[in-house]
Amino acid sequence: MTHPATWDEARHALGMAEMDDTHREFIAQVAALIAASPAEFPALFQALVNHTRAHFTEEGHLMRASKYKGLPEHESEHHRVLGELLQLNRSLKRGHLPLVRAYVKEGLMDWFDTHVAMMDAALAMHLKKDLPLLS
């Protein structure tokens, strides 16, 4: 089931301002990609890859700093998804716009919603306990 690329407070808010802001930016970038013309799409997809890499790096630092026990699984998921995005970016550069556009439209928000609900929500609860100044 595909969800629209819109921020939903009930579904996406974690109560951690920095995480929530980063997630809002991600959703806005996905929405821009969905609406993008073929000419705009490659640069916007590269921006999404860059944003996602920075987002995952920052979450990795937070997980390490707080000694988060779920780090291996969470980081493994980050590596998997970033790998998919990088592979899709290579496909896009070879002219496979329809494939990449379909991934963005049909799968990316479903993955994101599940990731936020399962992995990021658990991380946010951990961080609120261990690093309360961040919340």
What does this structure look like?
The chain has 135 residues and is an all-alpha fold. The chain has a domain at 41-134. 78% of the residues lie in helices and 0% in strands. The protein is built from five helices and no strands. Helix 3 (41-65) runs parallel beside helix 5 (97-130). The protein starts with 8 loop residues before the first helix and ends in a 5-residue tail after the last helix. The mean pLDDT is 92.
Pick out its properties:
single chain, 135 residues, mainly alpha, 5 helices, 78% helix
Alpha carbon gap, first and last residue? 31 Å
Number of helices: 5
Low-pLDDT runs of 5+ residues are none
Gross geometry: globular
Structural class assignment: mainly alpha
SSE succession: HHHHH
What can be said about the biggest beta sheet? Answer: none
Query: How much is the average pLDDT?
Result: 92
Tally of extended strands?
A: 0
The proportion of residues forming helix, as a percent range, comes to over 70%
Radius of gyration: 15 Å
Oligomeric assembly: single chain
- Strand content bin: under 5%
SSE layout and pairing:
Layout: H1 9-12, H2 17-35, H3 41-65, H4 71-93, H5 97-130
Helix pairs in contact: 2-3, 2-5, 3-4, 3-5, 4-5
Give a brief outline of the structure.
The chain is mostly helical. It is built from 5 helices and no strands. It is 78% helix and 0% strand.
